[in-house]
Hints:
By secondary structure, this protein is α/β, with parallel strands linked by helices. It is about 45% helix and about 15% strand.
Amino acid sequence: MFRKEFKEQGIGDTLFARLKNMEKLLHFSKFYIKFEAGNPTGTMKDRASYATLRHAKEKEYTTIAVASCGNFGASIVQLSQIFDIEPHVYIPESYHSPRIAEMQRLGGIIHRAPGTYEELVELSGKEAEEKGWYNGNPGTEENSQISFEAYESIAYEIFDELEYAPDAVSVSVSNGTCFTGIYMGFRTLFRKGRTDKIPVMVAASTTGGNPIITSFNEGKKKIKELAPDSITETPENEPIISWKSLDGQQALDALWASEGYACGISDEIMIAFSNLLEKEEGLSVLPASAASVAAMSAYVKERATPKSKCFVSVLTSRKY
């Protein structure tokens, strides 16, 4: 649905490349990356942001409110210019993303408030309702469905390049929205008879700091929130740490349905893989994004069968 519009705005059709140096280092048969950092604001968020803003415009809203750690806010602010919508971005006082200055420069109205990201989602949603703005946060039924559909395009683009479904696809997760959308895209291709399988979905996040990973590895079918004070936020894990994944149940369902794999990655390993990608392949991505490659490495070592030959990691955001 969105692919034609994405193309017109320079969104999507991001780099898909085989990383032969990484193949040798990690002992993969075939290893590819989908470089979502190639989107206009350097992150996969542009797909969901565009879809959300278009929906807000269709409903005749002139103002949108979102909470963000950095990337989603920067994406909403830049793409809001296409739709002539005023963007309000709520950012926790404890966050110090370099993208805040970028948002302000592009005309974003920044609200700093105490609390966690999840608490600011609630705050911004409440204020949007009171002021007649569009609540653009993930987790509402309409935004989730729109964003899932937008992220399905990643699966379709991977399929167009390979002409088959890979054996496994890894994605770094926070709320789980992108992860779920990619799974749904491959599920659609499978149901239409375009592929002979749905890839094993591999979820990566920070160690002990994401309810999708924790719930799956504890064998739970229903997502269980973490205690907010049980997780430790760092500059490296900030983009993916979460005590309440807003689309976590759908992501957890996707893990179970695809016979998936979930892996917590330490900051040290994220940094190591980020440095490795830059040194070996010239790809500059955030440590949190490189977690998807670290998780794929763990999956291949622990669970992949000899029949598994093709692995794809989605690199969700560049360094900025």
